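Fill in residues.
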């Protein structure tokens, strides 16, 4: 089965140091074989050649044995299907399962992670980083800045703004606004926090009356009878009506116990009740909310707001030093100092981080383990062989070299003992 990682095989080429170690180990084996053949031919010339032959013979045997052992880990020696060779390719699935089980048992269990997280001061580390401007001026921040600029510039402003607006609109449509407004108004009335609103309505009514004085007079004169108009009393009546309205509004504004204020309070209390319990009122509010969301003017306003937000984000991302030198940087510094000096806040942040990490491991640990196991299973035999051999190959070639040398020394020692005896 084709592996999703097979395209990375070009990066699994044998490193130059590993190739050199292989050549050295093979050269030593060939050299010992050549030395053995030479010592066999020169054995009768001088007794010393016997020692050379013993060394070369044992070194050749040791080198061949270690070459077979090292090769058998990754492939069949000389391509021969010898039993118990090509161990890693044949057992790659079991290796993946074992590695996954090792990760699960030693790293990705809630108990293990919780125990390790108790020693981690995430709040202190974050506070130190936030409080030190020099620590924030490294590659991480500039890399994040470039990434943010690329992402913001790569997004279609209109399309992304429309998408964000659509998401907000859908969220607002799903929220029942009327009950929340009713509870808010009810709480405000209970604490007399609605009084500034009533005062503002009275002031607005007075200003509206002043601005529309001629309109009010015209309405009164229009509804006055013909006799009043003929006698000219319609103007007097209109003046009296306007003065009476102004006087009433002034009295309501000055007298907290005015009956009209009590009526206003009763009306607001009834409105709060209906917003929470009247299906008709709730339906009216929902229709008003949906009409407002669907209004093209609101969509145009939002796109303008979004473009300003996007422009500000781009300016801050392009110049992170300037952005962090202002109020944002000062806020980050103060937050960092607070995280380091406030033990209660530090404990809360560390507890939150610990619970988040432990919860993440509990929720996704098995998925990570399966990912490791499935990934190794997905690798073909050649890929996993190449990667493991490249990772530990130099040490294995040292085994071949050491086997050659140690075998030769053992063979020489045995020959010396044999000669002495």
């Amino acid at each position: 089965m084709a592996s999703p990682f097979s395209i990375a095989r070009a990066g699994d080429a044998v490193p130059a140091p590993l190739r050199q170690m292989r050549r050295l180990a093979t050269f030593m084996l060939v050299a010992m074989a050549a030395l053995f053949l030479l010592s066999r031919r020169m054995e009768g010339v001088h007794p010393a050649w016997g020692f050379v032959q013993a060394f070369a013979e044992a070194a050749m045997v040791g080198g061949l044995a270690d070459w077979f052992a090292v090769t058998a880990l990754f492939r069949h020696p000389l391509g021969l299907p010898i039993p118990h060779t090509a161990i890693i390719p044949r057992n790659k699935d079991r290796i993946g399962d074992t590695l996954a089980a090792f990760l699960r048992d030693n790293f990705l269990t809630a108990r293990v992670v919780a125990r390790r997280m108790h020693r981690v001061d995430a709040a202190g580390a974050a506070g130190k980083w936030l409080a030190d401007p020099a620590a924030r001026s490294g590659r991480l921040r500039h890399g994040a800045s470039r990434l943010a600029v690329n992402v913001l510039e790569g997004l279609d402003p209109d399309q992304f703004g429309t998408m964000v607006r659509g998401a907000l609109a859908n969220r607002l449509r799903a929220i029942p606004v009327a009950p929340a407004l009713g509870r808010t108004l009810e709480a405000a009335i209970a604490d007399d926090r609605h009084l500034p609103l009533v005062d503002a309505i009275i002031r607005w009514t007075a200003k509206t009356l002043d601005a529309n004085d001629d309109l009010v007079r015209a309405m009164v004169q229009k509804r006055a009878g013909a006799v009043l108009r003929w006698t000219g009393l319609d103007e007097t009546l209109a003046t009296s009506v306007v003065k009476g309205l102004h006087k009433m509004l002034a009295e309501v504004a000055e007298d907290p116990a005015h009956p009209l204020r009590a009526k206003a309070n009763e009306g607001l209390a009834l409105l709060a009740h209906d917003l929470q319990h009247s299906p008709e009122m709730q339906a009216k509010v929902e229709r008003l909310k949906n009409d407002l969301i669907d209004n093209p003017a609101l969509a145009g306003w939002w796109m303008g707001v979004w473009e300003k937000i996007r422009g500000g984000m781009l300016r801050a991302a392009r110049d992170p030093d300037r952005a962090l030198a202002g109020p944002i940087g000062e806020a980050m510094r103060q937050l960092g100092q607070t995280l380091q000096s406030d033990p209660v806040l530090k404990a809360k942040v560390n507890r939150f981080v610990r619970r988040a990490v432990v919860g993440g491991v509990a929720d996704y640990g098995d998925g990570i383990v399966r990912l490791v196991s499935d990934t190794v299973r997905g690798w073909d035999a050649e890929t996993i062989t190449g990667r493991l051999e490249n990772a530990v190959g130099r040490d294995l070639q040292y085994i071949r070299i050491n086997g050659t040398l140690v075998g030769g020394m053992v063979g020489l020692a045995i020959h010396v003992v044999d000669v002495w005896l």
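The longest helix spans residues 381-420.
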